[in-house]
Amino acid sequence: MAMNIGKIDFGPLDARHAATSSDFDEIFFQKVFIDPAGINLDDFNRGKKYFIYGIKGSGKSAILKYLEISNRKKCYTRFVYFSDAAREGLSSGSFIPAGTE
After folding, report:
1. CA atoms 86, 18, 71, 74: torsion sign
2. Tens digit of pLDDT for each residue in 70-87?
3. In a domain, 12, yes or no
């Protein structure tokens, strides 16, 4: 019997959508998360690094979600995307582009 590949559920589009879905399993996510090569996640925990960037699909959202879950009991964390923060700031009038103060 032939199967229509369009009917297969591969899950959410990306980590951002997976992390915000109602059926996101944080325990499972922590178990299967693999530390990215060349990135010391403790540098983020200690404040040595604080900015994550990269091309689409490089794992930025997954790293952020992992750090958020791992540090939730130690400190306040919030999962914020620059695009959302900029959009919210623009709509509320509180976003001021650099050099225009």
Report:
1. positive
2. 888 887 777 666 677 666
3. no
DSSP class per residue in 26-55: HHHHHHH--PPTT--THHHHTTS------S
CA dihedral 5, 8, 12, 15 (to 10 degrees): -70
Q: Would 99 be classed as within a structural domain? A: no
Q: Is residue 31 part of a domain?
A: yes
Helices (H) and strands (E) in the chain, counts: 5, 0
Of the candidates 41, 46, 44, which has an alpha carbon nearest to the alpha carbon of residue 30? 41
pTM: 0.64
Closest alpha carbon to 18 in 77, 54, 59, 74: 59
Query: Where would I find the beta strands (DSSP E) of the chain?
Result: none
